[in-house]
Each structure stands twice: as C-alpha cells, then as structure tokens.
Amino acid sequence: MKKIVNDPADVVADALRGLAAAHPGLLRVTEDPAVVARADAPVRGKVAVVSGGGSGHEPLHTGFVGPGMLDAACPGAVFTSPTPDQVQAAVSQVDGGAGILLVVKNYTGDVLNFETAAELLAADGVDVRTVVIDDDVAVQDSLYTAGRRGVGGTVPLEKIVGAAAEAGADLDTCERLAGTVIANTRSMGMALTAPTVPHVGEPSFTLAGDEMEVGIGIHGEPGRRRAALADANGIVTALLDPILSDLPFTEGDRVLLFTNSMGGTPLLELYLAHGIAERRLAERGIAVERRLVGPFITSLEMQGMSLTMLRLDDELLRWWDAPVHTPALRWGL
Amino acid sequence: MKKIVNDPADVVADALRGLAAAHPGLLRVTEDPAVVARADAPVRGKVAVVSGGGSGHEPLHTGFVGPGMLDAACPGAVFTSPTPDQVQAAVSQVDGGAGILLVVKNYTGDVLNFETAAELLAADGVDVRTVVIDDDVAVQDSLYTAGRRGVGGTVPLEKIVGAAAEAGADLDTCERLAGTVIANTRSMGMALTAPTVPHVGEPSFTLAGDEMEVGIGIHGEPGRRRAALADANGIVTALLDPILSDLPFTEGDRVLLFTNSMGGTPLLELYLAHGIAERRLAERGIAVERRLVGPFITSLEMQGMSLTMLRLDDELLRWWDAPVHTPALRWGL
Amino acid sequence: MPCDAAAVAAAIRAAAAVITTHRDELVRLDQAIGDADHGENLERGFGFVVSSLDGEVPDNPGAVLKLVATTLISKVGGAAGPLYGTAFLRAATALGDAPVLTPESVAAALRAAVGGVVARGKAEVGDKTMVDALTPAADAAEQTAAVAGELAEVLRAAADAAEAGAESTVPLIARKGRASYLGERSVGHLDPGARSSALLLRSFADSAAGA
Amino acid sequence: MPCDAAAVAAAIRAAAAVITTHRDELVRLDQAIGDADHGENLERGFGFVVSSLDGEVPDNPGAVLKLVATTLISKVGGAAGPLYGTAFLRAATALGDAPVLTPESVAAALRAAVGGVVARGKAEVGDKTMVDALTPAADAAEQTAAVAGELAEVLRAAADAAEAGAESTVPLIARKGRASYLGERSVGHLDPGARSSALLLRSFADSAAGA
Ligand SMILES: Nc1ncnc2c1ncn2[C@@H]1O[C@H](COP(=O)(O)OP(=O)(O)O)[C@@H](O)[C@H]1O
Ligand SMILES: Nc1ncnc2c1ncn2[C@@H]1O[C@H](COP(=O)(O)OP(=O)(O)O)[C@@H](O)[C@H]1O
Ligand SMILES: [Mg+2]
Ligand SMILES: [Mg+2]
Ligand SMILES: [Mg+2]
Ligand SMILES: [Mg+2]
C-alpha cells in the first residue's frame, strides 16, 4: 500500500494530531471521542453549526472549522460516519446557548448516528435541529432507495449557514437558510481511479485504462455506471447535463459553480475542466457569479472531479461572501 | 492515460482559460505568450515580483499571483521552463517603474531562459534583478553539477518578497530579503508514485509496490535513490534529517515548517506526516512558529510529499504574516 | 448448564473472535457494493465490546446485551453501528432482567432485535440488507422454540435461516443503504450486513451448543 | 547545386521532420534521466520554425539560421530552447551574409555553435550533454574541410562524429543539466540532447548529400 501512514488503525488519530499542530489558535482538537472545534468555542449567544462524517474527505469537514463556518466537526473512521458520542461531545464543547444546527450528508450511517445524537441532546434540553443534504443527481430519488447522497453541496451549505450563524442569525433562520441551499444545490461526480482505504490496503475498485466511473460517490463505492473514458469535454458534459436538467437550472439563473477535485486530480486538469464548464454555462445564459475550484470534498487519492451548482439569490450571495477563517477556506479575515 | 484533458498539446492554454474564468477581478490572463498577471497591474511605484516555470506544479506559480505575492507568473509547457518572450511580456504588463525582481528556481532551463530575458530587459533600460532559489538538500552542491534544485522554498520566498514589495520595499531591499530567505531555506521531497505528463501519456517512472523514491524533484525525474517503502515515521525522518543537518538547524531556531503534498497524497496523510515532523522538531528544541500544510508545489498527480524549513527572524515573520490575496494563499484580505 | 450472564458474555467474546476471523471477507463484500469498511467497523466495535466486558460483566443476560448495544452505538459509527446497536438494545429490553435465557426468551429477543433494525433503517425483506438474514432467523427461532425447546436448537435454526437469508441477497437489487446507490450493479453480490448477521447467529448457536 | 538560403531552409524543414519522427524516442531518453520533455520541446520548437519559414525565407543562409535561432529561443523554453537557440544564433553570426555555404564556413559555423552552447551551459566534454556530440562534430568538420572540400562530406563527418559522441555519453555520470540530479543513476543512459544533436547533424548531412 502506497501511503504515508504508520499503523492504519491509528490513521485518523494521527492525522488529527497533525491538524492540531498545524492550526494552533484556530482549532482545538480533542481525542476520544474525536472532535475538532474552533479554538474560541463556545461563542456565547451564537447558533453552533456542527457537522461531521467519515474521514478521508479532507478538507471536509475538519478543514472547515473556524469563524464564519463550522463550530465543530466530528471525524469518523475513514469513510465511516462518526458516532453519536462524538456529536454529543462536539455539541457540549460549542453550545453557545442559541441552539445547534447539525449538518448531515444523506447516508444511512450518518443520518442514523446524527439522529441518535440529536435525540439524546434533545432529551438533555438542547435545542438541536438537523438538516440533511442530498445534492447528488447521480442517485435517483425514490421511495425505494436510501435517497440521494450528500456530496459537494455540503461545502457551500456549511459556508453559507456558518456565515449566517456567525453574524447572529437565530436557529430558525439558519435552518431555513440550510433548506434554501439544499433546495437549490445539485452535484455530480466521476472517477478515473479508485481510492485506497488504509485499513483495506488495496484500491476500492479497479478500472481499466480506458474506463471511468460516472456518478461516483466519495467513499470509493462504484458509480452509477462505468463508461468509456472521455476527454475533458465529454467528462464535463457527463456531469453538467444531469445537474442542469435536474433542478432545472435555466437561462438567467445566477449560480455558484464549484469544480471539485476528488483528491488525486491535478489542479491543472481541474482548472481546465472548470473553464469548459464556465463556457457551457455562458452558452446557456446562466451567470456564474461565484466559483470555487480545488480539492474540497475528496475521496482520499481518487482521481476524478465533481461539479456542484448552487442557484444564488442576494441572501445566499451575501453569506457566501462573508468573511471566513478556516484551514481550507479563508477570506476577509 | 487517465487525465481530464482534451488535446494534450493544448493542456496549458486550456487550463489558463479555466484559471482566468475562476478568478476574474484577481487575475488577468493573456495567451501567446502565456502570462498570468494580477488584475490591477501595473501598480505604480511598486517593485514587481515575477516568477514562472514549467506547468504541472500548480498552484505554483500562477496560483500565487495577486496582491501581496507575485505580480505575474509565466507558465511554461508542462515541466518546461517558460521562454524569454513570456518573461518580457509579463514584465511589460506589470512594470510599475520601481524595478523588477525575477524569482527563478535553479534548473538549467529556467536559469537560461530568465537570464536571457533579464539581459534583453536590461538592454531596454529596465532595472531587473534575478534571484535563484536552490533549496533542495537532496542534490549535493558541487562545481560539477547544475547545483541544487529549487523546490518547496519557492513558496515562502515568493510570499515574503511579495509582501515586502507590496508594502513598498525598494528593489535592493527585495533582492536582499530574497537572499536571506534562500540562505535560510532547505527542502527535501519523496515520491510514492510517478506523475504522468499529458504529452507522454504514461508514468514518468515505475516503482514497485514496496519502493519509494527519496530525494525527488518536481518534474517526474527519478530521485537520488530508490528505497524500501517506509512508514510515515520513516518517511519524515528520511526528509527531515538531511534538512536539519544541512543548514544546520539547531536548538533555539525559530522556523516555518511547510509540509507539502506532491499532488496525489491525501490531506489526511499529509497532516499525519506534519504532526510527526512537528514532534521531531519539538524534541530538538526547534520552535515551529508558522506552518503551511497542503499541496502548494506539486508534480501533477504524483503521490509523495516534501518538507521545507525556513529559519525565521522577526523581519521574515512579519512579511510571512502580511496580507495576501491569491488563488492559493489568502489571509488578511 | 444454564445460559446466564457469564455464558452470554462468553458467547459475545466468541462472536468477536469470529468477526475478527471474517474481517477481511466482510471488507471485501462491502468493497464490492459499498465502501469497504463493514469488516473493519465490526472488528473495531467488537474489540471495544470485549474491552467493556473485561471491565465488568453485568449480572444478567439482558444487561450484557445492553452493554454490547451501548458500546456498538458509541464506538462503531456507519450504518452498522446504530443498526446492530439498536438490535442488541431491543433484545436486551426484551430479555429484561431474567437471570438466564430460555428458548422462548431468545426467540422473543431476536424478534425484538429485527424490529429495532427495521424501525431504524426502514428496510423490508428483499431490500438486500441485514434484514434479509435477521427476519427469517427470527421466524425460524420462534417456530423452533414453539416445537422443540432446546436453546441451542433455536439458535441453530436461526443461524441456518440467517445463512439462507444472506445467500438470498445475492440476486437482489439493493434498495437501502450504500449499495442502493449502485442500482442494478448491486445484483450478484452478497450483502455484507446480511453476511455478518449470519456469522453472528452461527457463532451464538455454536456457543449455545458447546455450553 | 550551391547551398543557398532556399537549400538551408529545405534542410531545416527536413530536420524538423526528423525530429517529429524521433519525438517519442527523445521523450523516452529524457524520461529515463530527465523530465520526459526533450522530444516534445524540440518538436514544438521546430514546428514553430517551419511556420516561420512558411512566412518568409530570408535571403541568405545566415539569416535562415538566425530565424531558426530566434524562434527556438522564443518558443521552446527548457534547457534545449536557449542552448539550441544560441547554437543557431552563433552559427548564423559566423556565416554572416554570405549567399551560400562553403565547407569552411560550415565548419566555422559549427565551431561557433559549440562555443555558444558551452558559453551558455558551461558544460565540458564528458559532462553527458549535447556538448559530447557537438564538440567532436565540430572537430571532424574542421578536419574534413581542411583535407576534402565537399560540403556533404564535411557534414557527414560531423554527423558520424556526433553519433559516436552521443553513444559515448552512455557510461558517463551526468554533471550538467537535469540528469546531474541523478548522480550515479544517470550511468547507462544515452543523453537525449546528445542524441538530438546527432539526429540534426545527420539530417543536415543527408540534405547536403541529396542536394
Ligand atoms: N437501512 C438499512 N436497514 C437495514 N440494514 C441496513 C440499512 N442500511 C445499511 N444496512 C446494512 O448495513 C450494512 C453496511 O454496514 P457498514 O458497511 O458497516 O456501514 P456503511 O454503509 O455506513 O459503510 C449493509 O450491508 C446492510 O446490511
Ligand atoms: N548545461 C548544459 N550544457 C549543455 N547541454 C545541456 C546543459 N543542460 C542540459 N543540456 C542538454 O539539454 C538536454 C535536455 O533538454 P530538455 O529536456 O529539452 O530541457 P530540460 O532539461 O529543461 O527539460 C540534455 O539532454 C542535455 O543534452
Ligand atoms: Mg462506511
Ligand atoms: Mg523540462
Ligand atoms: Mg460500509
Ligand atoms: Mg527535459
């Protein structure tokens, strides 16, 4: 296994020690249960925004902790949602008395564990709300499935809700805002290669040199379909078209375009793909007003990319632009 | 070839179009010759800091263009230094009348092309100085080689000199400061896998599953030696010890520690390695006062990492902390 | 020998060892249609369960299962943590503070466990989940408890039914959990959670037979 | 047929075609001890050279080589761009505005070219660079020009010597350029720049022989 790790069983704990060392003054990292909180938490009178999920998607979520975004993140084992204990511990560290918003990606494990935590917290009298993001258009929403996955839309969701909370929005407002983001966000991803989970030691799937996975998630699970490898134009089309037709996004829409690397794709290729997506949207009369390009929600070293589009209004734009200071996103501070 | 590209011959131009689209208002990108300049250039009365090099190392250098860092970057073909034309074009776009500092990594091609440009610019009456960074301790400095390569140290060099220039330092000061950074910076890198250059279409070298390359550069060239794959502790030791003994760094030193991903290494592993390096330095009584962790000088999708240490004084610290607003590094703005 | 708290604790330890033996198999099953962590999740979880039991052995079977439940819920994460946690919790509640297990109480506990999994995960038989192993197991346990009377026989019937139920997931299209994202591509693979349910029940049956 | 500007331009076009044919070979050589771009760099550069010649054919051989030089310098980058660019520039200067090439002027141009590469790159014979091909080529050209008198023979002697010189780089340890970072690991590989020098000279010799 080609990895920079010691004992694979300790990989998350070891990485958290490095994260703590790298960001003193910004983050406070506690072990057992593992919680990454902003150093100045709890912020009195402020809604606390808490998220979490399996590790291996960095910078999501731990890299988004800090003023203007998350109050705390709960990192689970690699690709495994965190436990209710972690969520409770996080909340106890960051509860400023104005309520808690739990941001959950729609996976059975995440939903069950956060739900359990929310029940236990509510039983303790904490005012806690849960929002579940399910922006992945690769998965058909249906009564007969676990529903759509939460993927790239998580990043703007956490940024926007975090900004509102920082500015003093109350829990109802934060919850409503989260609903607006979720309703207006769609994503789709693809992979050229598979990630290798440290405790497994081999790639999660194998692809021939002329194949790609389309409609991929972020846990090394195979995608919706395996397709012949396409060039950048073909890849962008395969991601963008289902996104556009799903919401749908139409002429005159103002959007945030988020071009995300799954981890192993070089920035050179990512910018190249971003340029194609921008031109496609311009052709359709969709105005890209904000963009984010980089590896922000990853699947270890997987090569591939995802596109996320968020339909903006003035309120969302304002919170997107608001100052943020986290390890991975920073501006205005 | 598993890449998100259209025609490999167009990869740099295509990526630059995406970069331009992604950062309107911040960058101004011109083609033929390819130049990425800050949108508000030239800044009158300010020393202009210009760098460049082969593409494929993103965010270096194009991602470091903006207020507080580079005035312009000249992206060459993949892993190929830019031409004198590009450098001249960049300078003509950003010359604010206070002189030009060219930041060059020590490779024969880069030095020759920037030297040629500098000669031509000087002949035109431009006050131009060239600084060459050669921080890679993997390569023994000797009369009989091309000398040490310029690698990770380029990032703090550009940040620090860029900050001073932004604050109004004159060309002599910027040149002296660059010399101080170069004299106090040492780096070393390693690889677990090879990058694939788009125009080649296959990995630059092959490594067995139980091997790594130590003392690697950033162009897919093999390293100084091939070694048995080590765990994270072993990898950090293999990089840190030669760095420490070279300057040497000693007890009581204050340093910036820069833990860099070569591109394909997940942030989880990078933070893990960073944590080990921090502990090693603490054990030796070396005070890590600033850190940078992430993929900042890469070699396409190569998995691996490098460590860079810069011995700090108050002046360097001040310029490191100064505001910067570029696609890849941003704070205080 | 009556099946008391100590015997149940021993059975849990034995099951933990079985999970360790089958860790890689469960990882591989989950790799095919999920995210390759089911074996690792359960091994980690049962590792903590064994540590908990090293610390204290509660004094009735229900309390042992409750300790298993709370440990799994607080230490595993993923889908399997809360689902198995709930299963053990409901089983514990069903057993109450009875000092020993009976064939009937075991059948009732298993039925309660299945109910817990369904309540949490909303899966039905045929959705290609652990429910496909656990539901027939609970049916078989009840039937056997009604006619036979031996605890070991009840658990053996449950294990047999769970194994058959797990096998039955191979041709199915997953409609719950992570495998559901694959749609038709999930066909032809054994569901990892169904497999681990069968492994656990077989281990319990073996413990009961050996006791 | 006198070797005038048109003949030199034709020889440059032929050399560009040779580079394209050998692009992958040069990439592979550079991949072994460098960064895998030498073939791509030269193909790109000579592609621009051909475009320049499509636009204008300067009216003497020296001016043709100057156009080649400025195009390589401004379009190639890397080490090879400025080094070959300087070589062609010095050769052009040596030729002055003479209307045709002579055996002597070609030998002098080649000597000037080598001098330019050494002035820029500071490599000596034995450092495992293009200098190992170009230096013996210049020596052979001078010797042949002194005794024989045929332009084609002078260039053939240069090409023969360049090929032998290129081969001689295989056992060397690189001490200049990117391959020097490999130290002892550079032993056993042919230097890509020495190889491309030999290819260019062989192509020029073939053009002269065919003219
Ligand atoms: N909604 C559900 N109801 C019942 N069982 C489920 C459900 N979702 C998932 N499972 C079971 O959980 C197993 C996967 O567990 P595990 O891999 O540990 O968690 P995760 O899917 O979060 O990675 C599946 O094989 C399936 O048997
Ligand atoms: N200092 C030097 N003097 C002479 N030739 C050199 C020198 N450095 C490099 N070369 C030649 O350049 C060749 C490499 O060219 P190329 O691959 O195009 O550039 P780069 O090394 O910048 O990638 C080497 O094979 C060698 O022959
Ligand atoms: Mg999981
Ligand atoms: Mg090169
Ligand atoms: Mg799983
Ligand atoms: Mg090269």
TrEMBL record, chains A, B:
One of its GO terms (cellular component) is cytosol. The keyword Translocase does not apply. Residues 7-331 form the DhaK domain. The keyword Kinase applies. GO terms for molecular function: ATP binding; glycerone kinase activity. One of its GO terms (biological process) is glycerol catabolic process. InterPro entries: DhaK_1, DhaK_dom, Dihydroxyacetone_Kinase. Keywords: ATP-binding, Kinase, Nucleotide-binding, Transferase. This is Dihydroxyacetone kinase DhaK subunit. It comes from Actinokineospora iranica. The lineage of its organism: Bacteria, Bacillati, Actinomycetota, Actinomycetes, Pseudonocardiales.
From TrEMBL, chains C, D:
InterPro entries: DhaK_L_YcgS, DhaL_dom, DhaL_dom_sf, Dihydroxyacetone_Kinase. GO terms for molecular function: glycerone kinase activity. One of its GO terms (biological process) is glycerol catabolic process. Keywords: Kinase, Transferase. SUPFAM superfamilies: DhaL-like (SSF101473). SMART domains: Dak2. The keyword Kinase applies. Residues 6-206 form the DhaL domain. The keyword Ribosomal protein does not apply. Pfam families: Dak2 (PF02734). One of its GO terms (cellular component) is cytosol. NCBIfam families: dha_L_ycgS (TIGR02365). This is Dihydroxyacetone kinase DhaL subunit.
